[in-house]
Each structure stands twice: as structure tokens, then as C-alpha cells.
Amino acid sequence: MLQICNARLHDRVGLHTVSIDEAGRLRTIEQTTVVPPDAWDLNGGFLGPGLVDLQLNGALGVEFSELEGDEGLARLAEISRFLWSTGVSGWLATLISVPVEKLHAAMATIARFEAPADGARLLGVHLEGPFLNPEFEGAHLRHCLLMPTVENARRLVGDYADLVRLVTLAPELDPAGETIPWLVERGILVSLGHTAATYDEARAAFDRGATLVTHVFNAQRPLHHREPGVIGAALLDERVHCLCIPDRVHLHPATMRLLVRLKGATNLTAVSDAVAPLGVGDGVYEWHGMPIRVEAGRVQLPDGRLAGSALGLAEVTGRLAEQFDGDQELALELAALNPRRLLGLPEFPAVGERADLIAWPSDSPTPVRAVAGGQRAVVVG
Q: Is there a domain that residue 206 lies in?
């Protein structure tokens, strides 16, 4: 039995003791400051649900858009266990712009996957492309980009409408404005990204049902005082939720503070945007025939463009808290609670359920997985 004491919970007042049995199930939650022998004392640190990453492109050397067959299933199981050990409880496999046939092969593999008992859940697919504007293609392959039409959307989604949870697109490429409503009608969240949309075009997309912006400030028309673009439209629209990468690489801390001030903590979600080298280490790797350099979590193409990240969401969450004077509660809201709310997931496990929890001791730079059976946590970062 693991007892975690002097823990703050996001939805309760005071300090609590939480017990987890040897099978990894949540047993009790009590408001008390008593510290039993051999208990784990968080000293006022937070205890919350595991992290959920809505933009994860790959890990352990595997790019999700390259998944295929039984080998792909085996690699997903490895990644699932790895993510769980780092504090991630669930993720959307983010598929970049590759030929539609490859996307279908990857989705066919993902649809067959069942997470192991000691692994993170694969919650669906985020199609980050191919409906992107080549002017802001970032690290996507230009020859694989498609126009966002209903015909192309129907072909892209295919038989996987229940699997696709999120689509990132450039709305200005669909003047008729039919693609966003088509996706929304099928229960798919639509996010604006890799886009040159003007303020008015972004506003029209939000009116049609788009509710998110992908890695806000990155790979989109910059905020300008005479043309605020998608960023200005998103900051002013209370209906809009922004995905952000608060790793101090993609966003300056002052930009992050601006986002929190203007959108509020409830309208922001932290993502990693991690790519295949996550969990592998620094070095030079091949990416679709091009070398990418990974150094201290930063991933760059030869021309200097960012190509995602090699930092896990727990490390990103720690960096986020650091930018706000160690505010663990804010960081966990952006990285654990808000993505759950977007996907309609429970915010905290019930007594008797799997103790899907991460702890954040007051002296730790990042949250850690709370586990029973001897090893208390796996430190990440």
C-alpha cells in the first residue's frame, strides 16, 4: 500500500492523504495532515490525474505516421509503457502530412491497438495535416499537402471517423467554408494551424465550428497591428481554446504570460509536439530524407526551422510551472485537466479505479508517476 500525504488536490480544500493498493487502485482519499510511517510526504505538493498529450508525433524512434502492421502494434506497446512511466496517461497519435495511403495504414494499426495494463491509453488520432498552407508548412512535406475540401476530407477520414478526434487545417484554403462543418458534424474537433488566415478568415472559421488553434504563435500568420490574423482572432474569442508548447523554445515566457492573461488558464492546453527522437537522446536523425538535429530537447531542420520537440510533456509541464514562479496548479490544469475536458475524460479517478495519478513533490522540478508496489515514482526529464 502506498500512502501519499500532505497533497493538494485541484478540486478540494486543504491537504489530503491518498492511498493506492498493490494492484494500483485508488483506495482512500482523506483530509488529514498526519504522516504515517513509510508514507510519501508531498509537503504541500500537488497530486493530480496523469498528463494527456494532444499533440505527440512519435517517440522511441517511431513516427506515428509510419506505423504499420504487427510491428507497429509492438512499437506502440513499448511507447505506451514509456509514456506511462513519464506521467502521461493518454495521448492522441499525431499524424503529419504524408500520402493518404500511409495515413490509412497508420490509422488501421492504431485502431487495432489496446494499451497494456501498465501503459498509457491511445485516445485517438490528431491529423495535423495534410490540409495545411504551404506558406506555413513548417516541417511538413509540401508535396503531401492537400486542399481542405469535403471530398478530400471524406477520403482522408475514410472509415476512421470514430478514431479521428482532432484535425488541424488552414481555413483560408477552403473559401466555400464547407470542410469545417463536415468534420464537426462527425464529432471531430477542428483546430486552425499552419495557416495564413487573416483575422476575418479565422473569425469565419470559428463561426463555422472550429474551436481550437494548434501550437498558437507557431506556423501561422504573425500577430500584426494592422492584420491580427488567427492569433488576434483566437485571443479575443471566448469560444476558442489554444494549444501551446510552453517549453521556452517555441514560446518566450513573456508570450506564455500574455496567453494566460488573455485566454485564462481554462482556455489553454499544453502539448509537447514531441517527435520520434523523444526518449532516444541527442543526435542527428533522418526525417523523410532530411537530417534533423536534436540537442537538449530542441529539434531543428538544416535550415534552422523547428521540427517539433524531443521533450516529453512532463518536462514541458515543469518548464511551464517554472515560468509562473513554480505554480504547479496552473501547470497541471494546462497539461492534465484541460485536455481531459476537451476529450470528455474524467478529471480524477474514482475510488476503486486504477490510480491514474501523478505527484508533484514541492522539491521536484517535474511531476512524477505515483505507483504502488515498492518504487514510488519514476522521475522524468
A: yes
Give the residue from 85, 154, 168 showing the smallest Cα distance to 125.
168
- Least Cα distance to 84 among 108, 112, 126, 53 occurs for 53
Q: 181 preceded by cis ω (within 30°)?
A: no
Residues 10 and 139 in one domain: no
Q: How many domains does the chain have?
A: 2
Under a CB-based contact definition with an 8 Å cutoff, are residues 339 and 54 in contact? yes
Render pLDDT for 190-215 as a digit per residue (tens, 0 to 9).
999 999 999 999 999 999 999 999 99
CATH code, domain carrying 359: 2.30.40.10
| The pLDDT of residue 285 is above 50 | yes
Q: Is residue 379 part of a domain?
A: no
221-233 mean pLDDT: 97
Model-level pTM?
0.95
Cα–Cα distance list, 223 to 169, 207, 233, 255, 313 (Å):
18, 20, 10, 12, 27
Average pLDDT over residues 316-334: 97
Gap between the terminal Cα atoms of the chain: 27
Size of the chain in residues? 381
CB 308 within 8 A of CB 129: no
pLDDT at 16 (0 to 100): 95
Q: pLDDT tier at 42 (50, 70, 90 boundaries)?
A: very high
The CATH number that applies at residue 307 is: 3.20.20.140
Does 185 map to a domain? yes
Task: Report the distance separating Cα 230 and Cα 92, nearest Å.
Answer: 24
pLDDT, residue 41, reads 92
Helix (H, G, I), strand (E, B) or coil at 368: strand
Q: What are the phi and psi torsion angles at 91 (to 5°)?
A: -155, 155
Strand 26-31 relative to strand 58-59, pairing: unpaired
**Angle (CA) 138 142 143, round 5°:** 160
On whether both 23 and 9 belong to a single domain, the answer is: yes
Range of the domain at 187: 49-343
DSSP state of 94: E
Same domain, 365 and 216: no
Instruction: Please give the pLDDT value at position 270.
Output: 98
162 and 13 inside one domain? no
Active site residues: 273
Residue 381 lies in a domain: no
Q: Mark whether 40 and 21 lie in a shared domain.
A: yes
